């Protein structure tokens, strides 16, 4: 265990976790595991107005489904708790006060109406109102008041906020593992609110204080937080924690399938693919959004496809298990540019992971997929079926579509195939074939294959034509898995019955 490496996934429970959020959790997890460090879940629920019931449980379940179990968190506990910010609220005020004492923050008493008014007058002049060094001296804040007057207002219960005080025209330099050195002039920044008189910190203060108190060594989060970095770095300095500052890594965006803009819930709705790990029912509207789990994805496939959005191993290799990702992962191989989400590729990942799953581990899932169709399969039937069907499906829920003809005779025959393949001498050929099959002993995959091949070569028929017609009689369509396997599975009687029935129906 490397006690110095501590990372956190810090979602706000404001709705279902987007796959972008899940990828952030994954990269934190991989980083922690690859360094023998600690992976922490911290729930950032200070903004009560955006709180959504059920969202925290959804986050926990999503992580569990993917196998990204935190070492410390609201459920796991740990030595740095509590792990929900709402349970830590008393902590933050003290730091806000410390900042005001040091002159790095100040009380602001401007009412929302006054600020709105300022915004409007600026807008009318074609300008944007920003609460910063250029205007704060003319506004209602403690920088322009006698200490006694400030105290009086506070004691009288006047609502206030505490704002960070950015000095004008300072170059703020920051290091990011993904982006290298980033630098911003403080004049482009506003004096962000850190704390409100209702006793609640804002995201910025709570986030920085908690990262410090939880001894976080690396902050790995989405690129959308990069604009907050100058404030966070300034807060570390102002609080005297510069030497304890974590390292930062801002992950590139996951882009829409078109490559333009950030992948959103609407893209999923339009394109018919999930953007959430688990199904989510909106508690207010009742609207249900699909999830990877419910759509039939294996968690390993989901992890693998998310890992490849933003990270690459430096080779062409694309398929990894979670264990393999842990040993390969490094933040240095996270790219700077956004990664396009490709729904087709997502299905491909599931297909590949299904192929990587040993047949014996798929027995239960295949059995269930068939049981809902009223089919009971024994062990030996499954042993035949799985290797034949597995390569033909992306998801377990496709098992029935690819295997129904193992259990049911076709009730219709594809007219296109009939038109193309059914010739005058076909009924005679089929008759000869079923007579030979009736004599085939043992009726195994090998037995059937050698019988069929020898009839075809004895008679000088074309292999392709005969196999296509035979498939039509057994399956009703032109495509499907290996016919010798299917025939052996069906057994002699059923094969002959289907061949006779089909020929009768087609010839009318
Ligand atoms: N609560 C923030 C979020 O919802 C956390 C950002 C961070 O990791 O600092 O993404």
Tally the structural domains.
4
**Would you state the CATH class of the largest domain?**
Alpha Beta
Distance between the termini: 75 Å
| Strand line-up of the largest beta sheet | 3-4-7
Derived structural class: mainly alpha
Verbal overview:
The chain has helices spanning 19-34, 55-66, 89-102, 112-124, 147-155, 203-213, 229-238, 265-271, 299-307, 322-328, 343-356, 359-371, 379-389, 399-403, 415-421, 426-438, 445-459, 463-475, 483-490, 492-507, and strands at residues 6-9, 38-41, 105-108, 161-164, 171-176, 180-185, 193-196, 218-222, 247-251, 254-255, 280-281, 288-289, 339-340. By secondary structure, the protein is mainly alpha-helical. The chain folds into 4 domains: 6-76 and 253-264 and 292-343, Rossmann fold; 88-248, Glutamyl-tRNA Synthetase, domain 3; 358-406; 415-507, Arc Repressor Mutant, subunit A (Orthogonal Bundle). A hairpin with a 3-residue loop joins strand 5 (171-176) and strand 6 (180-185). Helix 12 (359-371) packs across helix 13. The protein starts with 5 loop residues before the first strand and ends with a helix. The site of glutamic acid has 8 residues, from helix 6.
Q: How would you summarize the topology of this molecule?
A:
Layout: E1 6-9, H1 19-34, E2 38-41, H2 55-66, H3 89-102, E3 105-108, H4 112-124, H5 147-155, E4 161-164, E5 171-176, E6 180-185, E7 193-196, H6 203-213, E8 218-222, H7 229-238, E9 247-251, E10 254-255, H8 265-271, E11 280-281, E12 288-289, H9 299-307, H10 322-328, E13 339-340, H11 343-356, H12 359-371, H13 379-389, H14 399-403, H15 415-421, H16 426-438, H17 445-459, H18 463-475, H19 483-490, H20 492-507
Bound molecules: glutamic acid (GLU).
């Amino acid at each position: 265990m490397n006690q110095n490496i501590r990372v956190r996934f810090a979602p706000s429970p404001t709705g279902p976790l987007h796959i972008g959020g899940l990828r952030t959790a994954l990269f934190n997890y991989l980083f922690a595991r690859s360094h023998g460090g600690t992976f922490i879940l911290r729930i950032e629920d200070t903004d009560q107005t955006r709180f959504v019931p059920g969202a925290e449980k959804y986050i926990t379940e999503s992580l569990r489904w993917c196998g990204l179990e935190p070492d410390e968190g609201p459920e796991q506990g740990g030595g740095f708790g509590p792990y929900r910010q709402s349970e830590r609220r008393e902590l933050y005020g003290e730091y806000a006060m410390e900042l005001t004492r040091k002159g790095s923050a100040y009380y602001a008493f401007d009412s929302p109406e006054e600020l709105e008014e300022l915004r409007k007058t600026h807008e009318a002049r074609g300008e944007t109102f920003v609460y910063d060094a250029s205007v704060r001296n003319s506004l209602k804040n403690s920088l322009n008041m006698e200490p006694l007057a400030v105290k009086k207002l506070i004691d009288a219960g006047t609502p206030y906020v505490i704002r960070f005080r950015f000095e004008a025209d300072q170059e703020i330099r920051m290091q990011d593992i993904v982006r290298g050195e980033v630098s911003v002039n403080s004049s482009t920044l506003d004096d962000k609110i850190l704390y409100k008189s209702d006793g609640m910190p804002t995201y910025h203060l709570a986030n920085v204080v908690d990262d410090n108190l939880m001894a976080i060594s690396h902050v790995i989060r989405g690129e959308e937080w990069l604009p907050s970095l100058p404030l966070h770095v300034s807060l570390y300095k102002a609080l005297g924690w510069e030497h304890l500052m974590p390292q930062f890594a801002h992950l590139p965006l996951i882009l829409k399938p078109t490559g333009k803009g950030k992948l959103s819930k609407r893209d999923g709705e339009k394109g018919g693919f999930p953007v959430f790990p688990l199904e989510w029912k909106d508690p207010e509207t009742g609207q249900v959004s699909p999830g990877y789990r419910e759509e039939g994805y294996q968690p390993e496939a989901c992890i693998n496809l998310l890992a490849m959005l933003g990270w690459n191993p430096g080779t062409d290799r694309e398929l990894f298990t979670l264990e393999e990702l842990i040993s390969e992962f490094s933040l240095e191989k996270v790219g700077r540019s956004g990664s396009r989400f490709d729904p087709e590729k997502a299905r491909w990942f599931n297909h590949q992971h299904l192929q990587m799953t040993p047949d014996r581990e798929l027995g239960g899932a295949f059995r269930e997929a068939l049981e809902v169709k009223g089919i009971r399969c024994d062990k030996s039937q499954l042993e035949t079926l799985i290797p034949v069907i597995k390569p033909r499906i992306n998801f377990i829920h496709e098992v029935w579509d690819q295997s129904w003809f193992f259990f049911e005779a076709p009730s219709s025959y594809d007219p296109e195939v009939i038109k193309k393949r059914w010739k005058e001498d076909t009924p005679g050929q089929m008759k000869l074939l079923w007579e030979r099959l009736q004599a085939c002993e043992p009726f195994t995959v090998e037995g059937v294959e050698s019988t069929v091949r020898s009839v075809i070569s004895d008679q000088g028929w074309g292999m392709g034509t005969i196999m296509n017609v035979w498939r039509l009689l057994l399956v009703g369509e032109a495509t499907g898995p290996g016919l010798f396997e299917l025939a052996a599975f069906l057994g002699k009687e059923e094969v002959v019955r289907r061949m006779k029935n089909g020929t009768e129906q087609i010839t009318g």
